[in-house]
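TICKET: design request
STATUS: open
ATTACHED STRUCTURE:
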């Protein structure tokens, strides 16, 4: 069945799927986008005290600045899906990257908190377009000769750029004004545009210029959820994102405002999470090749739940090694979960549906990210007395008093326990999937 709302796997992509050099170039182009996402996800949180002091912003305004990326990432793929079907993924990838460059330059020139919020929405809208279309291009072009190995390479690349993003963000904030973090995105985004124009080829004309059909979208997604393994993989991915996406954000606030770390020290403290994801990625790949996808995926979720329980024991005086151990558990868990989950989802659907299935899986993850951010703010705020909440979120103070620090830490504990429950629920869904081996 043809679905006008979804672009089919085109001949150009099919030829790339049999050419390892072409796939490597596509992965390189999308990796630049992953680095932009990693920088964006950490730099605003690390720069939070500096931005608050410079723009005289309060915590609520900064939450809007940080949350703009999640909101834009959820809204943009839905509202511009018709343009994607009409113009093609490669063109929308370039358009998104260009919009990201413009938004980054504007953020660097912001003079008020409202300016920064508006410009962040522009910047993150472009980033959402670039990431979603770049990820779908990678899933389309996964080589037919060794799909499991290349999925592992994609997971490994994503974790490595997470390390680079943390170090760059912390280093720049230690040496320069926070505005230069946004200006750094301009040459980085320009490199993504240039490399994309050199390596990415658009679909043939006959696959484009298709009208957006809402009923086609509903039919397509209904057809996807009829595949039991895909349905549970997507739900597990959404729950995992809901459980873990806000954890680095809260930990960075804890390190900056309670422990008094500088941005570089806070970034280096968070590094065990992506670093151990890099170390464990080959193990996840090996386990996927020699067994069922559900085993490493479920083990990864259980490890993440264990890491969250460990982190829920943090106090304002916890030792550095205590934080590293909890993040290490989560890092290994993320590596064990991500690649097997992705591979099981893609293996569960026919090849002609994988392009749309990749986009839908990304949407499930984005929904989870948005839910994680909302859940974090709701749980942490509800655990505080109203005067303490007002003092925490309405002030311009970038260092918490002992009373605020204790209350915030207790709220963080409650969130981590809730997140642990979500991880265990996702692990349960993973265990009841079909016995699907990644192919």
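STATUS: resolved
RESOLUTION: sequence designed for all positions
ATTACHED SEQUENCE:
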């Amino acid at each position: 069945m043809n679905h006008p709302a979804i672009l089919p796997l085109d001949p150009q992509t099919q030829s790339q799927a049999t050419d390892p050099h072409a796939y490597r170039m596509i992965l390189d182009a999308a990796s630049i986008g992953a680095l932009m996402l990693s920088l964006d996800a950490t730099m605003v949180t690390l720069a939070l005290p500096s931005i608050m002091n410079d723009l005289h912003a309060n915590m609520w305004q900064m939450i809007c600045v940080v949350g703009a990326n999640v909101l834009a990432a959820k809204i943009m793929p839905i509202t511009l899906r018709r343009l994607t079907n009409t113009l093609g993924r490669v063109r929308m990838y370039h358009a998104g990257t260009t919009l990201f460059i413009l938004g980054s330059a504007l953020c660097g020139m912001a003079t008020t908190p409202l300016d920064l919020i508006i410009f962040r929405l522009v910047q993150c809208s472009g980033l959402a377009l670039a990431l979603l279309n770049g990820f779908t291009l990678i899933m389309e072009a996964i080589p037919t000769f060794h799909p499991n190995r290349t999925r592992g390479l994609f997971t490994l690349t994503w974790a490595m750029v997470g390390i680079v993003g943390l170090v760059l963000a912390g280093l720049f904030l230690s040496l320069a004004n926070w505005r230069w973090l946004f200006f750094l995105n301009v040459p980085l985004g320009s490199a993504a545009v240039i490399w994309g124009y050199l390596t990415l080829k658009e679909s043939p004309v006959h696959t484009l210029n298709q009208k957006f059909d809402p009923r086609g979208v509903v039919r397509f997604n209904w057809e996807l959820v009829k595949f039991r393994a895909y349905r549970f993989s997507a739900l597990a991915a959404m729950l995992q994102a809901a459980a873990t996406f806000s954890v680095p954000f809260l930990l960075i606030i804890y390190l900056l405002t309670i422990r008094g770390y500088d941005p570089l020290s806070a970034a280096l403290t968070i590094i065990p999470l992506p670093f151990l994801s890099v170390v464990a990625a080959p193990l996840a790949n090996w386990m996927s090749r020699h067994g069922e996808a559900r085993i490493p995926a479920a083990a990864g979720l259980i490890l993440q739940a264990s890491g969250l329980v460990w982190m829920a024991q943090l106090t304002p005086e916890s030792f550095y090694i205590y934080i590293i151990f909890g993040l290490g558990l989560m890092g290994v868990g993320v590596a064990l979960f991500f690649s097997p989950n992705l591979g099981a989802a893609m293996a569960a659907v026919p090849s002609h549906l994988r392009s749309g299935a990749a986009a839908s899986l990304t949407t499930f993850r984005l929904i989870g990210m948005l839910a994680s951010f909302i859940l974090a703010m709701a749980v942490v705020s509800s655990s505080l007395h109203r005067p303490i909440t007002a003092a925490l979120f309405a002030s311009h103070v970038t260092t918490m008093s002992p009373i605020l620090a204790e209350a915030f830490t207790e709220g963080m504990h409650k969130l981590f326990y809730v997140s642990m429950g979500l991880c265990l629920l996702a692990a349960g869904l993973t265990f009841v999937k079909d016995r699907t081996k990644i192919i």
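CLOSING REMARK: The first helix runs from residue 11 to 16. The two ends are 23 Å apart (CA to CA).
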